[in-house]
Amino acid sequence: MTLSRLFTTLMASAVIVLAGSGAGRAAGQDGMPDLPKAPVETAGSLSGAYLAAKTAQASGDLDAATDYYTQALSIDPTAEALQQDAMFAYLADGRFKDGVDLAAKLRDDANVAKVARITLGVDALTKGDFEAAIAEFDVVNPTDLDALLLAHLMAWAEVGAGRVDEALSRIDQSTGAPWYAIFNAYQKGLIASLAGRPQVARKVLSDVVADQTLARTSPDAYLGAADALARLETREGDKQAALKAVDAGLAVAPNYTPLTFLRDRIDRGETIEPAAASVQEGAAESLYVLGQAINRGDGRDVALLYFQLARALSPRSPALLTALAGIAEQANQLDLAISYYKEIPENSAFRRTADLQIGLDLWYAEKKDEAKRHLERAVRDYPDDVRAHTALADVLSADKQYAEAAGALDKAVELAKADDAENWNLYYQRGIAYERQKMWDKAEPDFKKALELSPDQPQVLNYLGYSWVDMNRHLDEGLGMIKRAVDLRPNDGYIIDSLGWAYYRLGRYDDAVEQLERAVLITPMDPTINDHLGDAYWQVGRKREAKFQWERALVGKPEPEAEQRREIEAKLKDGLTGAASSEKADTGTAETPKRAEAEATSPTTDLPAKPANPAATPASPTPPEAAPGAAPTTTN
């Protein structure tokens, strides 16, 4: 549980308060309009209100949970355990002022004092009371992560108090775990830049940008340093140095929208703002970058707390809004995610990505017509953006409008760099759109092109290999492709099903049974896999077991489509007759590749990471944990 603990004394109940919480409210008490919300029922008793709050939290409805906590506190405003739980819920929900009120009461509570004091310190920063902030951040016995965060927040408070040397000294003296280096350098560069010390800022930021290995610890800090250095050099009048810093960042993350957006602005000669234009923005950036470093798995709950504290300091930060939307998406709170995206300013580098994610979230929220209209508008607004055409193609394919999807992908392919390995998915998805239209003469070249760009893509190997076997073409090569796909994804029930069904189509029924039994163990509720296994059992004489599998297929998840249901019901009545077997053979191409298509075209893998780091935000690797002395394990 160390990743779920912001501080060593953070009690288990406080972690539970955050668990499953989603991303809080998108607008609230800090000068922003509230989202429309349904009123919660009056609980009527302390225990009823408290239980309702806990239940709402468990279901991910923080908005309702905080309302119930408010009811409970109105009945008993002195209960410490209730105050503790409510404080965490208020903070996670973005009800910062309510959280501050409770933090003031809990400042000396041994269980939650550190969180309370961080909250009070952040509140002091928002008000410009920098001495009070420093006093609150002066916490004893911090963990490594605590110490780093507190040093940065106190340094920003020192800047606000006019003590720049002391601020820089606090950063220099923050010498804990080895992974401190990039975070310290980034914050020192931001402080020096804001304080009018360009030489200091240039030195520390350049050192970060020159060492790409630092991105393994925190891609957000690395790319932030590149962005800050480029802004500094532009403001200092050195355009070439600025563009060099941008290029260094793009070498690590070629599609990182904020840097491409900044490059365009520099080229146009626009006035470029500093990376942090105020003490509050700088402190918010510290919370944001460290939040991104732990924004995964159990750490997402704590990251949400960091982000909401940061948002109290910088309410309109596009990066923060994007991160909060990502957490909401992970919690399947799609309307909330959309509301965050809508708050992103029109002139922001994150605006375009937000528009595309809104369309995809509308689709996932079952607002399919609205999603298509939104993405069609996005294509008109961003006609030269590959991602816009791909996002539209995603929802069109998911809605089985394959001709229209192919048209959108034609434009995406035209805009993309043909030989860029990252574009394999464009050809793969267009190949599926063609195959769905029974245009194999166009589909096959696209599948081959996808494999040429990225030879070991299991989805493509599976789709092309199965299609060849199904059409009785290139049998050895096709079967070899499917086996290779299974080797690459040995625990993927759908791809193993492809191998089993290919054996079935080749008349190798014993081999089919072996593979299909593996597939159904991995993916037990899929109707098509159960249907396939039933057919294979019938062919080897295991007719009772065949009927059992067909019955399971009828109650599978997702539910079988109408035509498949009719075929299964006919087999349950009459068995797998010769006519039924022939019918199956005639329609086989739609079987396994259909599920590969769903995997490939469901919105969306082309837009950078959804959730935690949606769209323009780089994915963070394994972060520093909150345990003393813990160091990050770097991943790609």
From TrEMBL:
Instruction: Report the superkingdom from the record.
Output: Bacteria
SMART domains per the record?
A: TPR
Which SUPFAM superfamilies does the record associate with it?
A: TPR-like
Where are this protein's TPR repeats? 424-457, 493-526
What are the alphabetically sorted keywords of the record?
Answer: Signal, TPR repeat
One Pfam match: TPR_11
Q: Which InterPro entries match?
A: TPR-like_helical_dom_sf, TPR_rpt
Give the protein name, as stated in the record.
Tetratricopeptide repeat protein
